[in-house]
């Protein structure tokens, strides 16, 4: 049937609004998975940098003890690296929460809706195949009969399967949209507040952000 | 000669103060190379994070265009990531300057002094070997003669080689100390100011720091 459709030899049942929403969902999923890939990489890179800063803090503190001639200079560098390491841990807790929520949204919630959509699309193809067959039977044989009645009954049954899956898809898309906006609204605010606070050295705001958003694992 | 010394069968000429300075230099070089290894790793990690933030900024900006329902949230995240990327480049210029100066200090200046010190140490071993030989000749044969005079002349020549290299080492150690304190004083201040300014979101201070320390490649 898909082949016939591509060759233009068979017509295709189209629900324009629903298909636009499906196309949009697939694009959104792709884009969110790209953000997830980048934010996961960022968390890993900042975590590595934070570990290096911890080691640098220790190296500077050790050199401060052993170098009276540069003690002050080594000491303030040791202090800076240590305080950045502490804030880095709070930031990473926030990033991990963002990544985990985005992972659930893109790989669980969206996938669940896309599973129903794939069933809907398969049912649509099957329905259109029966429909083409019924039309060919109607045109070719002309009259009706036992065979004709069988085709019509199968067509009717498939139309109802198709209709049910179309309604399921529409409902799931609506619920997914609401869920997505709610989750992303919260997570994008957390991401922004945590990153801004960290990179402005505002550890009070950083800790307030992870508390406000109930980030798991944060102090 | 080194083996005889270890077995306690031969005495060793010792310049306590110089040897303490040499031991200190070797320890300082080890510690500075460790800091260089860590600060090079930090620059690479922050550079990777900065590239990820650039890509994240673009992904957020793209999503802001395509998602009217979350436009504001995506937009402020795009702005934050972009401004962090810009500041990241300035910070990296400062870190590269720090790393390059520390590399020159630990791998060039300190190595040059250590080369003279290794020559001095070899001359010391050779001098002590002649000295043991001369002592053995003096005790065994008792008197003097052509052979005895040859040993004494060689010993005298080697004592002067040893003395010259000892003086060279002492001078180089003194110059290296002055150079090291000057370089590290500047670089530790730059490192601290650049890192503090970057991680407190103070791009004015960050740019002032790289200008003040004439960081190459910075805007």
From TrEMBL, chains A, B:
<dbReference type="GO" id="GO:0034315">
    <property type="term" value="P:regulation of Arp2/3 complex-mediated actin nucleation"/>
</dbReference>
<dbReference type="GO" id="GO:0032588">
    <property type="term" value="C:trans-Golgi network membrane"/>
</dbReference>
<dbReference type="GO" id="GO:0005543">
    <property type="term" value="F:phospholipid binding"/>
</dbReference>
<dbReference type="GO" id="GO:0006886">
    <property type="term" value="P:intracellular protein transport"/>
</dbReference>
<dbReference type="GO" id="GO:0019904">
    <property type="term" value="F:protein domain specific binding"/>
</dbReference>
<protein>
    <recommendedName>
        <fullName>AH domain-containing protein</fullName>
    </recommendedName>
</protein>
<feature type="domain" description="AH">
    <location>
        <begin position="13"/>
        <end position="211"/>
    </location>
</feature>
